[in-house]
Amino acid sequence: MDILAAGDVVNVMLLGASQFYQPAAGVEIVILQQFADAVNGNYGITSNGTNYASNYFIHDSTNTSYAGFIPSKMAITNGFYYRAHNTDTNLGFSGIQTK
Q: Which class in CATH covers the domain with range 9-97?
């Protein structure tokens, strides 16, 4: 991955049923938009990728199918990072690196 700086646009594509994106230490990204192709599942912020009890700001769309863009505004860091657990593939996000 290229080295990014504050103010740069970040686009991340996650493939697979349960994925995480954890920025490097000292990096903060504000997620503005998530995208999916017919995802049923949940997404949000976690502080521990293996323990569901550590998930914060999780949107559960188990009974709702989203396709296209999901408006979002949340900041992720190395300690509170992005989690996408779904029953489909091709989920990701766009945002801006703020630190």
A: mainly beta
